[in-house]
Amino acid sequence: MSYLFTHFRIVGALLVREMSTRFGSKPGGYIWALLDPAAHILLMTFIFRAIARAPALGTSFALFFATGYIAFQFYQAMTTYLNSAVRANKALLSYPNVAPIDTIVARFVLQIGTTTLVAFIVLGTIVATMRVETSLHWPAIFEAVAMACLCGLGVAMVNSVLFLKYPLYEQVFNIVNRPLFLISGVFFLPDSIPAPYHDLVLLNPLVHIIMGFRQGFYPEYRAIGLDMEYLYGFAFLTLFAGMLVFTFSSKTLRNE
Amino acid sequence: MIRFEQATKYARTKGIKKPIIEDASLTMNRGKSVGLLGRNGAGKSTLLRLIAGAIKLDKGRIIRRGKISWPLGFQGSFQGSMTGEQNVRFVARIYGVDTEQLIDYVEDFAELGPFFKAPVGTYSSGMKARLAFGLSMGVNFDYYLVDEITAVGDANFKKKCQAVFETKLKDSDLIMVSHSTGTIRTYCDCGVVLEKGKLTYYEDVEDAIRAHDKNMKEN
């Protein structure tokens, strides 16, 4: 019990440290962690609204794009931030009671909080300024967010180990990851993709996360092809793999 | 008490595998300060980190009873963009000691004045060392790990460090690595010699020093 308590205490200390160091040197501090992505999404949204005539869903291009982008960010910002959690805190592992997993948990909690706040700021702004009233379906939103975060956690735990063991893999991962934004259905609806490619697109679990998330904002959206079982399976499998790799590589993580 | 049970640890770098300790068993009892002796590159510092638990054994285990410190004067955890105070607060939190009490102690001890509330990145190396030493002294441990005592600060500060250190040693033990047999003799009751992956424990530090000197003469 006291063992668990120690970990909670350390995660708390790391959380405060991460918050003050991530943006600590700039005036405004942690506020930038929120403003930066929020401004980015709002800007992108307005640019795309100017380019595209009508969104694939609903009437607001802003809402269509932002729902896709934020669901995507719940996964993407998570892995990006968590991939380097252990490496960035390497010096702290000289304190024997700081375990590699503590650095992951601290960043995981912080990133969930950050993206959630960003989501409230951006989607709140869009929904409030829309002429048509939107009815939200919270369970679908929560489910999609939870899956996105768990996938992100699992992938990042695997990466934390593999990046240290195989530097080449880090390069490959980054190259493969780059077009993810384009193929995950942030801009389009997978439902509209023709037959042979439709199944291919649906292999990407992020597509399901975004579909699920959008269902929470568009009650009329039928999300053909959305397979929650597939998503749950993928999320828990990556998480399990992450925990397994993490547990059996404590030496690599402590960088001996 | 710290006990090694068939402990084995290899150092690996770029395909070279060198034993630090092989199948070593020994017990260090509470109430005795221990000096670790061994030639350059034998792995004394690694051994110290093994005792701290910062790295893990390949085989066997180490049983620790009592709180063991980080290496005395460790500065690696200091985050340059955080103030001295914030850095101290972080350590207080991870060790679960009273935050304000530790901050007061270190602020008073390190004599940094207004710089205590300035980012550590702006410190001189001497100031950083004073902060680190104050931090080590501010948390109570049963065992203090020391990897080569290095003098910190000016003559007055040195005197103060010496005094605090000696009061600490009334209730705590040292596990010390040093190349100076004089320092080992001053602080330690018994000794451990690390030679070719073997750990040998000597009840009397003088015997340990003699054995170490003999090893050094042989090669």
* Number of helices, counting only DSSP H or I runs of 4 residues or more of chain A: 12
Within the largest sheet of chain B, what's the order of strands? 5-6-7-3-8-9
Please work out how many helical segments of chain B DSSP would assign. 7
Largest sheet properties of chain B: 6 strands, mixed
**pLDDT averaged residue by residue of chain B:** 89
The poorly predicted ranges of chain A are: none
Helix content of chain A: over 70%
What fraction, in percent, of the residue positions of chain B are helical? 25-40%
Identify low-pLDDT runs of chain B: none
Q: What's the helix-strand series of chain B?
A: EEEHEEHHHEHEHEEH
The count of strands of chain A amounts to: 0
Global shape of chain A: globular
Structure report:
Chain A is an all-alpha fold and 256 residues long. Chain A is 72% helix and 0% strand. Chain A has twelve helices and no strands. In chain A, helix 6 (138-165) packs antiparallel against helix 7 (167-177). The radius of gyration of chain A is 19 Å and the shape is globular. Chain B is α/β, with parallel strands linked by helices. Chain B has helices at 44-52, 84-95, 99-110, 125-138, 155-171, 181-187, 205-218, and strands at residues 2-13, 16-28, 34-38, 59-64, 68-71, 143-147, 173-177, 190-195, 198-202. In chain B, the strands form two sheets. Chain B has a six-stranded mixed sheet, with helices on both faces. In chain B, strands 2-1-4 form a three-stranded antiparallel sheet. In chain B, helix 2 packs across helix 3 (99-110) and helix 3 packs across helix 4 (125-138). The longest helix of chain B has 17 residues, at 155-171. Chain B is globular. Chain B starts with a strand and ends with a helix. The model of chain B has no long low-confidence stretch (mean pLDDT 89). Classes of the chains: A mainly alpha (256), B alpha/beta (219). Chains A and B meet through helix 1 of A and strand 5 and helix 2 of B.
